[in-house]
C-alpha cells in the first residue's frame, strides 16, 4: 500500500474508526486557570529564594533577568499530566479474540491495534511536550510581589503504523502549539475531525508552588 494511502487510513481510523470500533472523546473544556500568585514579601526576597528552588527541579533555566523580573524556563518530556487531549478507545475482534485499548490522547507512548473492515493495523503513537515558561516577578508594593507563569506549549505527535501481515511501517508527524490560555488541534482528517488539546494548569501550579 502506498505511504500516503496508509497514513490517510491511520489518521482517519485514529479519529473516526470503522463501524464504531474506534472512538475519540474530546477533552473537557477548561475555564480560566489561575497562573499567578501574590506573596506578602518584597520582590528581592521572593526572587532570591525562587531561583535556587527552581534550579533544584527538572526545569531548565534558560535566561534570568533580575532587573526586569523575568525568568525563562523550559520543560521537555511526558505531556500526559500537563495537557488534556481527550481519550481514545479502540475495539478489535478477529479469530484471536477481542481486544480493547483505552488510553489518554496525551499519553507519551501507546501501541495498539485498529481495524478497517477485516484489515488490522498495528499503531505506535508517541506524544512529546516542550513547555516554554516565562515567570514574571512584579512588585505590587514594598512588601507585596505578584508572580505570573505564562507558558507556551509545543506538542509533537508521531503515528507509525503497519499492516499486521505486510509489516512495512509508515509514519506521520505533526506539531501544534498554544499558549496557556488557549488550546489547539492537530490537522483534521478528510472529514474535518481532529484531536484537540488543552493545558491543565498543572505546570503553572507546580512552578508557582516552588515560589514563596
Structure explained in plain terms:
The protein is of the alpha+beta class and 212 residues long. It has one domain (3-209). 16% of the residues lie in helices and 51% in strands. The chain contains 3 helices and 13 strands, in the order H-E-E-H-E-E-E-E-E-E-E-E-E-E-E-H. It has helices at residues 3-15, 43-55, 202-209; strands at residues 22-25, 36-39, 60-65, 70-77, 83-84, 87-94, 97-104, 109-116, 119-141, 144-163, 170-179, 183-185, 196-199. A hairpin with a 6-residue loop joins strand 10 and strand 11. The radius of gyration is 21 Å and the shape is elongated.
Name some characteristics of this structure:
212 residues, alpha+beta, 3-stranded antiparallel sheet, 3 helices, 16% helix, elongated
Enumerate how many helices there are, as a single number: 3
Structural class: alpha+beta
Multimerization state: single chain
Shape: elongated
**What is the gyration radius calculated from CA atoms?**
21 Å
Mean pLDDT across every amino acid position: 87
Number of domains: 1
β content, as a range? over 45%
Identify low-pLDDT runs.
15-20
Helix proportion range = 10-25%
Give the end-to-end Cα distance, rounded to a whole number of Å: 58 Å
The ordered string of helix (H) and strand (E) elements is: HEEHEEEEEEEEEEEH
The largest β sheet comes out as:
7 strands, antiparallel
Total beta strand runs? 13
